[in-house]
């Protein structure tokens, strides 16, 4: 083994969507990052290894407009445009490309975090370095960093460092949660192995391996099989065991279950329409729903979620149902595979649930955040994990700008939190009831006019970048916040109070947040999604400063675009001329920002 020492600002363990978004956010905000992923591809449960579709606060499109923006939206838009044919490997490679093209990120793939060094601090403990083993190159790495993040799902780094965590279900009384079990236990949600299948022109046999689990019709009475191309999230098992230490036994049983289901489909006679179908992929790595959950200064609860509580240190949000499953999964044949408790509101995720209460410099994001088992049943979905990831990356970049490495809870001071929130908004994240108040944004003081107004031009500088539906919480107004022209081409013009230096223009377009957008192997889910550029996005536009053409964009397919001049120009009028969309008949622009 050769040993390499690396030094960085921020070391992230785990390259699922939480870890990828944490790395991109920190790096784009100026921090040096090392991202460590134990497998060969990024994406975690969303990758080609496991193939879960990314869902979030819009609940498969049933809560229009609540879709997460920021980094996860950029990734989804890029994927829909470049990968209309739905190749999961293309999605893996998109994540890989986004990470490796950023010069601030060092990516270590096939690299396992298996230990760390800590020092005691006044009233706590700090991680000094993480130990990484990459067996296939016979290398080990010692990564020293100012701040660390555990985005590994299982929480290996935090556990090695002695971070407080829990595993299992709380008793009802502990947090007064009506959906909790009467008594605490060690059970979690289980794991699943997914598969995909293809339809051929001729009948395809399935020869049953001798080791598959036999199934009867009775066992599917609450788990109906409606299609064959993608199966089945409810093929779940193992939550009654330790999902880390007994992971191998769980995997073997899940393979018996996955192929047992396929054998039932093909050979029981109950599904004759499966005759021409054959398996084309079976997962080798179980998708894991739950293991360790770290403890922060606050544990997010059912109450926080159901009340739509707006925390003053919010850095992310969620909205997926409280989605509880029986731990024994397929064995619980008389129980529904999930019970989804609908939420009236969106809810906020505070910074104090994303750092360790006893390790000064440890952040976390994803399914291992500080939440009760019941709250986790909502926070665990991957778009929510991704916005948490963007949040902690932004927090880490802010932390490394501080004069010294200090406990992360110090960042909860109002001025610092406000700065973090404003950075998140500038990077197209959404926070409940937080508007753009960035004092450096020249557009905040501008007048706004347009060639035509189906919706007012002034909405483009309202400080909010989506329609805030009235049902999202007590703070919402149901306002549109978007300039919409009545035809194309159309222009929108900001007039600043006086001429001044302008260097950066930020544009936020409508990307159809009222629709679901995700990569999915399910034909049903895909039928609701536009695989390609979203029709509302302004495809071709020009930007003029005081009448002079400065930028000409053709073929845009992203919601957020930033244009930076090589050197600032003195100007008073900023005009965005929208020439064409990807199909929509009007231009829709949620925000224009301008910076010196
Ligand atoms: C069957 C199933 C169905 C689900 N359905 C959905 C759904 O439809 N939509 C949805 O959005 N969510 C769904 N979920 C939940 C969601 O997939 C997880 O909660 C989510 O993946 C958590 O994201 P994460 O980034 O925290 O962790 P992960 O996606 O698990 O990523 C963590 C990454 O860290 C890596 N890692 C682990 N340990 C180490 C280590 N020691 N060193 C280096 N790297 C390490 C892992 O390889 C992994 O790639 C489902 C989960 C399962 C299992």
How would you sum up this structure, described in words?
There is one protein chain. The protein folds into three domains: 2-169 and 290-423, FAD/NAD(P)-binding domain; 191-288, no CATH class; 435-595, Jelly Rolls (Sandwich). 20% of the residues lie in helices and 28% in strands. The protein has helices at residues 17-28, 71-82, 88-100, 156-161, 172-175, 247-267, 302-306, 373-379, 382-401, 414-426, 523-526, and strands spanning 2-13, 33-36, 105-108, 112-121, 124-134, 139-150, 165-166, 191-192, 195-199, 230-231, 236-237, 277-282, 287-288, 293-294, 314-318, 322-324, 339-341, 347-350, 362-364, 447-450, 483-484, 490-509, 538-545, 548-553, 560-581, 588-595. Strands 1, 2, 3, 4, 5, 6 and 19 form a seven-stranded mixed sheet that branches. Strands 20, 21, 22, 23, 24, 25 and 26 form a seven-stranded antiparallel sheet that branches. Strands 11-8-13 form a three-stranded antiparallel sheet, covered by helices on one side. A hairpin with a 4-residue loop joins strand 5 and strand 6 (139-150). Helix 9 crosses helix 10. The longest helix is centred in the middle third of the chain and has 21 residues, at 247-267. The radius of gyration is 25 Å and the shape is globular. The protein starts with a strand and ends with a strand. The structure holds flavin-adenine dinucleotide (FAD). The site of flavin-adenine dinucleotide has 36 residues, from helix 1, strand 4, strand 8, strand 13 and helix 9.
